Amino acid sequence: MVYDPKSRKAEEFINHEEILQSLEYAKSNKGNKELIEGILDKANRAKGLTHREAAVLLECEDEELIERIFKMAEDIKKRFYGNRIVMFAPLYLSNYCVNGCVYCPYHLKNKKIARKKLTQEEIKREVIALQDLGHKRLALEAGEDPKNNPIEYILESIDTIYSIKHKNGAIRRVNVNIAATTIENYKKLKDAGIGTYILFQETYNKESYEMLHPTGPKHDYNYHTEAHDRAMEAGIDDVGLGVLYGLSTYKYELVGILMHAEHLEAAFGVGPHTISVPRLRPADDIDVSEFPEALSDEIFQKIVAIIRLAVPYTGMIVSTRESQKTREKVLHLGVSQISGASSTSVGGYADRAEGVKEEITSAQFDVDDDRTLDEVVNWLLDMNYIPSFCTACYREGRTGDRFMALCKNGQIANCCQPNAIMTLKEYLEDYASESTKESGENLIKKEVKKIPKDKVREIVEERLIKIANGERDFR
Ligand code: SAM
Question: Complex ipTM above 0.90?
């Protein structure tokens, strides 16, 4: 079978033989200094890397070289993303699921987990609890179940979420992480005003994929892998990729996900908006020790850094599956979006706010970083990052190639940075603790001075005063 990044057939753009050959090529060039220097030079010029070039870097074990890769990833991240970190939270709508994914507690045969599906009233409760924390951007999560969670339920839920205005809060962007679906349904999601459509591949290795998804609609590797194509054909131009690390061999996965990114760029002229890097976590009915491909922290960091070099304009997401310590490391190496104060339970935010404890868990997995949003924001500020609650690009129609152009033209400093500062100011006014407010105000003072264009800086200064006086949501 041929490898053709432009092809719409999953097995051609994620071609198994090409992955194996890339891994062989990487192994045989492990000591090829000239080749490696050339790859690093290309990465440093922010030209991105092919999957084969990335495989060569992944094969390197030389500590000095790995340090150089890390340093370069950090520089590239600063160049294109500045010091902003976009904040979001997952919102679990329903854990009913007809699939048999062996690593996920939602699997159909799990009779121990509490099955829950939020009503529209319960969604309101959740959204108000999320708004009370300060969140503006959500990732909707649901199991795959055509009877319990049909597309109409998802669409109604999105409408409900956007409609809730509470105190100074409003959810301004809803990203969606639901199972692969039809072009028709993706069109409906687009019309409902979603941000990014996110779908994790779980594993690119077809053989492993079919074993890990033995039953249910998700078993179909090709249908799943071609989902982003259908979403893009339906007009959703921001799509997110991801691999669940720990399911299969990481080298195969890294090459696979980069081939997927190359495919989207070749077929649609725009690569993935984000790449997520989840790692398998303990969960109800799931014994992680049964999965032998767990990644060490060192390899995890190397993967993040190489993704940063390979796709410099693609956002990278790390969730609360990771500990504070790991999150800190990967933020430096290229991660641009993180979740905070997440609950993976259905109804978990309102329950937490009201002090209710679930008798039987409905959670998808155990989070490692369980700090409050205020603690996460404070921690980011301490490291001189700007926690950003910005959703402006999406609301101004700067999606797909228009967002990428902004990034490639280096306009982040004049556009995203000011928006990040202003949305941080809103957060500080409405939700922050005293100490977070103090750190935040100090950082804002420093950051405003760095805005390159005088006119933009003046507008930001004016708006910061208006925000302090109660105005919100400048666009
Ligand atoms: N049902 C949708 C689908 O099939 O893509 C939504 C997925 S689920 C709510 C979100 C993601 O959680 C999955 O794609 C999977 O990668 C991840 N996940 C499942 N079980 C997990 C576990 N035990 N640890 C960490 N992540 C897990």
Answer: yes
